[in-house]
Amino acid sequence: MADSADDRLRLLIERIERLEEEKKGISDDIKDVYAVAKATGYDVKVMRIIVRLRKMKPDDRREQKCVVETYKNALGID
After folding, report:
1. How many domains, the chain?
2. Boundaries of domain holding 12
3. Could you list the residue ranges forming a coiled coil in this record (predicted)?
4. What's the chain's Rg over C-alpha atoms?
5. Contact (Cβ atoms closer than 8 angstroms) between residue 34 and residue 44
6. What is the rounded CA–CA span in Å between residue 12 and residue 2?
7. Spatial distance between the Cα atoms of 45 and 55, rounded to a whole number of angstroms
8. Mind listing the pLDDT tens digit for each residue in 8-51?
9. What is the rounded distance in angstroms from the CA atom of residue 39 to the CA atom of residue 33?
10. Residue 22 to residue 4: CA distance in whole angstroms
11. pLDDT category, 78, cuts 50, 70, 90?
């Protein structure tokens, strides 16, 4: 029984390791895309903001925008 549990654990660990490698590869690919965007003249900082906003639900985006506007008004910005 211990061998079965040991094998299962080993397989799970190996799977995690493979996924971590894939994640690193994808992360490197994303960095490359941002580098191309920057070389093309795009503002990478703004692109990252847009990507983050697109991941959000519309209601969450509206709420965040409202809170940011409230803070800006409180600080006299714009």
Report:
1. 1
2. 2-75
3. 2-36
4. 22
5. yes
6. 15
7. 16
8. 999 999 999 999 999 999 999 999 999 999 999 999 999 999 99
9. 10
10. 27
11. confident
pTM reported for the whole predicted model? 0.74
The residue assigned the tokens 């983050």 is 52
Q: How far apart are CA 44 and CA 59, in angstroms?
A: 25
Question: String of b and e for 10-44 (b: at least 16 CB within 10 Å)?
Answer: eeeeeeeeeeeeeeeeeeeeeeeebeeeeeeeeee
Helices 44-55 and 2-40 pack at an angle, to 10 degrees, of 130
Q: What type of residue sits at position 33?
A: V
Residue in this structure with the two tokens 């490197």, named with its chain if needed: 28
